[in-house]
Structure formats: structure tokens, C-alpha cells
Amino acid sequence: MEKPEKIASTQEHLDIEDIRDDVVILKNGNAAALLQTTSVNFDLLSETEQDAMIFAFAALLNSLTFPIQILVRTKRMDVSNYLARVVAAKATTRNEALAAQIEKYEKFIRDLVSKNQVLDKRFYVVVPHIGVDLSQIRVGLGSVFKRRLPNVSKWSILEKARLNLEPRVEHLVKQFGRTGVKAIRLNTEELVELFYDLYNPEVAIEQKAALGTREYTTPIVEPFLAPVPTVDEQSQEKQK
Questions:
Q1: For the chain, what are the domain ranges?
Q2: Which residues contact 124 (CB under 8 A, 6 or more apart)?
Q3: I need a surface site. Which of 72, 135, 167, 207 has the fewest CB within 10 A?
Q4: Which parts of the chain fold into alpha helices (H)?
Q5: Rounded Cα gap, residues 154 and 13, in angstroms
Q6: Nearest of 69, 66, 20, 61 to residue 164 by alpha carbon
Q7: What is the DSSP string of 111-138?
Q8: What is the pLDDT of residues 111-144, one digit of tens each?
Q9: With a threshold of 0.70, does the pTM exceed it?
Q10: Interior CA angle at 103 toward 82 and 94, to 5°?
């Protein structure tokens, strides 16, 4: 008997092996921690404040002994739920003057959304952990760049990454604080939600990610295009 063809899972197409203890574990043996930072309107600062921020940021860069990646993500916001709450507030209020003001506010929001895109911009800093020692790999350099390295334990990567990333994260949080920027490390649930949103931008608008580590796996990769119906299926649909 022929063996049934194995259906590829979603996780086989991702670079992420797992997310544990606030650490993103990658299939190539590396890991990373993510910081989310606040923003500063640089143009609104005085000249003295601008110079102080530039010097503080230069001190941050000069203090680094490891690489970092800065990610700026711009996402279109869905304000339908917010508008629904505004409509509900208008329906429940007994003050006619207040209801009239809520109605004007609702019209303003709808006009604003129809003419402009409501965007949400967020800033992240990726702190990497290089878990692969090239001197220990004997199968050739080509295997280093594969998605999954042989004989690499996820738990050993996690243990080394935690020890390596903790002082780096603390150092960056302190240095960003000197520039007036607040940095917060994303925990496991926040990381799962972030990557779910990155890989499913359309679905994430209406559906929240399952935040349990046992629940964020999808068994089958769904096709982007719907299958074309056969002639028999088309005839059956017409008869209905």
C-alpha cells in the first residue's frame, strides 16, 4: 500500500521553532528577545533637548557590543469596534444634548476614516542571540544557513539564550531610558500575538491569537486561492 502523502504544516514554513520564556527560538539555532519602545516627536523638542537626545542616542550606539535590529511597523487600524461603542453610547444616553454631541463625533470619525487611513505605528528593537558556534559544526558551512540544523536541542538553545539575553536587555532598557524613550520587553503572550498578527494581517483584525503555547499551531497550510470547482460541482450548484 502506498503511504499517504504527508501534508506540510504551517510551522514547517516558518523560521520560528518555538516561543518560550519571552524568547523567540529559531530553527537555525539562534534566538532573540524583542523590546517595544515608545516614540518621541523630535521636531517638538527645543534645540537643547534635541542635542541632548542625539548625544544620548550616540552614547547608546557606542555602548553596544552586540548587534541589534530596529523595526518600525506601520499598520492600518480597524476602527469599526470603536465606532460600535460610540453608537452604543449614543443609544444608551438619556441626555439629548449629549446624544447630539456623540452623533457629531461619530460623523467626524466616519468622515475622517473615509478620507484618510488611520495608521498605527509601533517601534521594536530585536536583540539577537547567536546560538551556533561555527567551530563546532563539522558538516560544512552550508548547513549553517539551512532553516533547521541537525542535532540542535531547543532546550539548550533556550537556556543559553536566557543567560545571554538578560544582561543585553537590561542594558538597552537603561540606555533607552537616558534618551527619554521607554523600552519594555515583550513577554511570551505578546510575542505570540505579534507574530500571529505579522503572519495573518487580515485575519488578526477580526480574530485574536490563541495565546496558549499549545494553541498557536495550525495543522494545515490553507491555499491563498480558492480551488476552481469542477464541471459536476458547477452543474450541482446551478440545480440548487
A1: 10-77+118-213
A2: 34, 35, 36, 37, 70, 71, 72, 73
A3: 135
A4: 47-63, 80-92, 96-115, 154-178, 188-199, 203-206, 231-239
A5: 18
A6: 66
A7: HHHHHS--EEEEEEEEEEE----GGG--
A8: 887 777 777 889 999 999 987 544 444 444 344 3
A9: no
A10: 100
